[in-house]
Amino acid sequence: MSLFPxxxxxxxxERVYLEAHKETRIDYSKTGGFFGPKLRNINHLEVGxxxxxxxxxxxxxxxxxxxYERTLEWLKKVxxxxxxxxxxxxxxxxxxxxxxxxxxxxxxxxxxxxxxMPVRFWARTWFGGWRLFAEGYSxxxxxxxxDYDYLESRRFRYKTFHFEIxxxxxxxxNPNDRVGSIEWEVFERIKIPKSDLTGxxxxxGNLQLFFWEYRRDVAFPRVVINDHDEDSPxxxxxxxxxxxxxxxxxxxxxxxxxLVQIKLDPDSISIPSIQADYxxxxxxxxxxxLPYSTRCDYWFGRRMMNGMNCATFLPDAKEAxxxxxxxxxxxxxxxxxxxxxxxxxxxxxxxxxxLPIPEEIITTGPVSSHDKDQFIKRNFTPADGDRWEQAxxxxxxxxxxxxxxDDHFAGTHVNTEQFSIAARRxxxxxxxxxxxxxxxxxxxxxxxxxxxxxxGPGYIPKASALTARGIVQRCTDMMGVMDWKNWEPMEVINExxxxxxxxxxxxxxxxxxxxxxxxxxxxxxxxxxxxVFRFSEDLVQNSAEAFHSSINWGTLTKEEKExxxxxxxxxxxxxxxxxxxxxVRYKGKLRAMSPITTNPLAPExxxxxxxxxxxxxxxxxxxxxxxxxxxxQYEDIGEILYSSLGLRFGEHKDGIFRDESDYSxxxxxxxxxxxxxxxxxLSRTEYGFITRNExxxxxxxxxxxxxxxxxxxxxxxxxxxxxxxxxxx
Length: 729
Ligand SMILES: [Fe+2]
Fold this sequence. Notes:
This protein has helices spanning 10-24, 56-82, 150-153, 238-264, 271-277, 282-289, 297-306, 386-426, 432-440, 443-453, 459-463, 468-479, 498-527, 529-541, 547-550, 558-574, 607-631, 633-636, 669-684, 700-708, 710-715, and strands at residues 38-39, 52-53, 96-104, 118-125, 130-137, 143-148, 158-173, 180-192, 201-209, 314-315, 322-327, 339-340, 343-349, 357-364, 377-380, 585-586, 589-590, 647-648. It is α+β, with helices and mostly antiparallel strands. It has a domain at 96-211: Carboxypeptidase-like, regulatory domain (Immunoglobulin-like, Sandwich), CATH 2.60.40. It has a five-stranded antiparallel sheet with strand order 10-11-13-14-15, covered by helices on one side. The protein is globular, with a radius of gyration of 28 Å. The two termini are 40 Å apart. Residues 408, 413, 626, 630, 682, 729 line the site of fe (ii) ion.
């Protein structure tokens, strides 16, 4: 019997789960010290050797560098204290003006004005003091005109003049009330020689600003980041960088040790020894307590439903209580020859009030190096003995990679980034900035890192079937099923569907918070409706092509057509995408995102509701949806032989249908240590939580509403203190 380990019951597994969970739970408290090895910052992580500084010589140099940087920071503070930039306006008359026009800078958007950008006109005295002469905003057409006192500017005491364009930087909430304050940072500063200010008007001309520009090399919304250290639209907070350093250095050193061992003495290292060197994860700990507890059918169904994958169960068309979970594999994406990535369809029986029990597994596509037929099918049932056990592992692996790419990377990271870019480009005076920015910050930065750590030359193309190009192709398709409109939390199948219950509960929390915010700020939101209009335009026009519309149905074979129909049906259910909505066609493509409003002047009936829904969706993706898949990586893909992101074809005629003891199909030693590094990196270094509110940027109301549901969440195995306020890892 494979439903439970021999002689064990459901209660036994639940007991070892709770014990192992407690034992392996990740603690996000601070560790490490000043004299420990240092990781320069999150941007410097690499799959190979990250820039960990672990020799005394380099560490001394690093110490001096840190000292130098801190001294610089201190000098800047002194400078700010000596030369405060007070907001008192100097000069009483308004008889001269600075004018100009602000637009974006890319070839295809340099005609788009930058509206509502805060601008300031400063004079500096001979002693370095700052004197504010005028301030204001660009208008809807990007035009700037701020008036100042001409005679005042002629006084000898002023040496230079500066025109500054600012962007919104951070939000802070007073911990005792809900009053938020905004920090502005200088985005661009232009020096104006005093000798040029001769007439009554000075025109700075048309300034094209490279401000949160969309990348044009991928067909879904990503921001341009040329250099994450020097020229980035935003930067990580210090706290975020500290957290990764404190949590991650031991893991990084373990990977380094393995890479050296593999190079110098490969016989001294094996898959089990690699596993043993990393912190114990949930499945390893459970197996120690009760062998087979994580390989049995009960656990397989329980994790598919309530683990990292939190799969979507589609009811069978004919049989009652039968459901299908589908993980689509390589399909037509670019793949390598080393790894298999078959499509896996799993039939489950979900009895009333029970957990899903797997009844059948169907794989489609190549599973050995001897047969590369894309549509070859294999069926397995529990009666198949060892083959059934192997098929469950194949299902876990295809499920793991699908979840990583489709749900984690596309569904939360890139999905949140598309809101982040549109918000940053357009929301400034609107109260919506206060609502959204704390939840949208840093996602563009972590996605930029993911391009190199996980995609591009990174881990996934080397440890799975998909090439970097294949991942981008897949992400483009996935982004074609992301839309805020008509999105609803997952339908709860029964009492044991604790994941779906938690998702619904969190959606209620977000709903109450956003509804409340809108009640309080409705006037302000309507007053700045133009910002909402531009936000909506950017969201829609830059969103990916709707997946179902991007398929060239006429060119497909019968089998391809069947496969694509299945994918469309499953993805629409999975991402709760409503294909029947009327969508915008822009530049020849039907766009996945629905418009919030089409009126630049004022909301039309239904628009405010649209806006609320879009905000709720963005916050939901950035917080709960990301946290779930991110923190459970450590549990569900934290054991090399239980579930990696790829199984190699190997040389055996049975291909990937082999026991776990055949290491020729598991990840090789390098990929194995990188896999452990990667799941630990992502799950262990979270920072920025709603209840912990480390940076005072979370609206206390959101925190309070969540706090009231603490025990309800706990009953669903969710610790609210671990729910992130933003997607930044
Ligand atoms: Fe993540």
